[in-house]
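USER: If only I could read backbone structure tokens as easily as an amino acid sequence. It would mean a lot if you studied the pair and described how this chain folds. Here is the record:
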Amino acid sequence: VIVMTAYGTIESAVEAMRLGAHDYIQKPFTEQELLMKVDRALAKRRLAGQVQLLTSEFKEKYRFENIIGRSEAIRAVLGRIIRVAPTDATVLITGESGTGKELVAKAIHANSKRADHAFVPVNCAAITETLLESELFGHARGAFTGAVAARKGLFEEAQGGTFFFDEIAETSMQFQAKLLRLLESNEVRRVGENSPITVDARIVAATNKDLREAVAAKQFREDLYYRLNVARFLLPPLRERKEDIPLLFEFFLDKYNKRHQKNVRPADGVLEALTKQEYPGNIREFENLIEQAVALAAGDVISIDDVVNVDGPPKRAKGARGTLASVVEAAERDAIEQALTEVDGNREKAAEALAISPTTLWRKMTRLGIQAPTAKS
């Protein structure tokens, strides 16, 4: 909208712009002035459209409920989420630790008809078998020592929503039988009660183990496996989607710059170094590395030393004798301890003497268990 008037004032121009006008032109005006303002308005509209298109493409292709990536492997996962989410199918998510299984579960919930209800996660490996049943099914008053009041279980909290079992393989065969009954009947019984309670919740389960092997080893119920394995997701490890590392880096860099109120940027070569590294802990390990780099960066630039992952054990060179790793570690320890001693425990000076960043020195000291000597007064 371009407002045209013969009685223009600063106040009327400001009001027109506030109400959404793109520009303001006052009579009399030349044809050239009008064309210039129209061209400017059209250019701004085209630019806004391009920005909106790029933003929507980025969200659609690269970010989906915080699932970051453009690799074929991750696009396949996103496509499957879009197909499975609107249904009520039970979902089984498998993959190594740190690959983002809970993120996928949340994305399925967020894009389902249950999105307005609760998403209730539970880590089966973090709760003892005794507490697990009470936590999930609830209990009646006096059901056991300390049960002074009736309590609703987590399944009931998930009414209408989604219940997420993380580390489902860590449950006992006895508990698996009760879970199977729940899936078949959509009913739970609180501990100490006989009356069933109807529960309408979608079940999503995840594990880093091969459940087929667990079934063969008589560690997981075969009937429950088939009940869970209606829609299966196999999440790729980070080593199989390294083309996603630049996007993951930018996402986590922005996240932790905001959290730690910083504005650090990578030096040349940082992305290449990150891409070449291995991450046994997958995205969880990668995210932790980026947060450390941001939080501990000495200035406003992340150096290659800041992102070299020194937390893991030294890798043995191919064909080397078994003692090489310990020899290298001992030499590294001696060099660090000597440098710290020579500068009276000043870590910045020691890092400078060793030609590494203070961040890298701190990590190495932590890994090797080195305490800096007390500085002399």
Observations:
- The radius of gyration is 29 Å.
- The chain has 16 helices and 15 strands.
- The domain at 68-236 is CATH 3.40.50.300 (Rossmann fold).
- Confidence is low (pLDDT under 50) at residues 57-63, 312-323.
